Transcriptional regulator (Micromonospora endophytica), 360 residues
Amino acid sequence: MPPPSEPDPTAVGRRVRALREARGISLSALARLAQVGKATLSGLENGTRNPTLETLYAITAQLGVPLTAVLFEPGAEPTVRGAAVNAILLEVFNDSDATYELYRMRIAPGTDQLSPAHQAGVTEHVTVFAGVLRAGPADAPLTAAAGDHLRWASDVPHVYAAVGDEEVAATLLLRYPRKP
Amino acid sequence: MPPPSEPDPTAVGRRVRALREARGISLSALARLAQVGKATLSGLENGTRNPTLETLYAITAQLGVPLTAVLFEPGAEPTVRGAAVNAILLEVFNDSDATYELYRMRIAPGTDQLSPAHQAGVTEHVTVFAGVLRAGPADAPLTAAAGDHLRWASDVPHVYAAVGDEEVAATLLLRYPRKP
DNA sequence: TACTGCTGTTCCGTAAACGGAACGATCGAG
DNA sequence: CTCGATCGTTCCGTTTACGGAACAGCAGTA
């Protein structure tokens, strides 16, 4: 999977300031309520500091919003994006002999996406709900239409691409077998 | 709104460790890939450090998961909870003369919930989709069934409660007028 | 056995995030 | 105008998160 969208420190500061001003409370007051220094909050809002998880939580808690409200653009789901693939992590199952990660993914038509190889033993399982997907090992990709299911060993570079001009909707199950 | 669910530092560490071990890579290797010290990662996984947003992001980026995957229990939506009310922030609009926060909320039957007063000028607008809601100023609450809409000034303590034994589904729009 | 390479933890000096105090600016009251 | 209060920023000493090195423990090899 490609790297997640970055939480820009200056954008985080801007969102904190916007939420604070919306509530009509001063920087000094919020710092007092959240029990952090005014210098800390000032630096955070101006993007000149690299806040600790603890301080950021203390502030968002006082603003009455979840941490995600300042980390990302509100409404934006916690997404893992690439050029063509847009996936969001739904669940993680920690079984006794493997870990499973369940993603809901959408693949835009027109562009391919190459993912690097995973650890040996890791497998990917895709179920297509809409569109036509071409995915699998880079040297031998498979094709699946709505309702179809694909699986491949992902210890080699693999690709994702939408066939035709319809966006592909699918679920991706990543299976990481436990090391013995 | 009540405080969000807390991101327990030890739980964050446990989730990072679980994700790392699922991928079958060592602590040393992940530290090298993420360009952080081994001591940093070790302390983070064991919950003895209070990580910076920057370091936490560098690590989750290498694991290929969004920040939220380690902050909260996977699958748990970024929710703002209280005894009876379960709300998730959907959107924030920064208009020229006001800020709007849109929540989707569910209210469990049986228990009431009291919210403290907001800033003067703040108004709440609730649209009920299912169930019967009793909400508004603590001294004069209003009642609304599915399809109804409520509004009140929230500069006084206010309550939320489900009437009957059906769960209430509704949207809540909080309006913070801009200071002149 | 000793050696090599790796694991994860601990020690330590440095860099920086922290809270508190001091600062100039702005506002309203007298 | 002066006073007092509060605003947000800046300075500063303390605390602590940081990266690198040293460490013990364990596997595989000669």
User: Anything to note?
Assistant: Chain A has five helices and ten strands. The domain at 9-71 of chain A is CATH 1.10.260.40 (434 Repressor (Amino-terminal Domain)). Residues 31, 35-40, 43, 49-52, 55 of chain A lie near DNA strand C (CB under 10 Å from a C1'). Chain A touches chain B through 53 residues (CB under 8 Å).
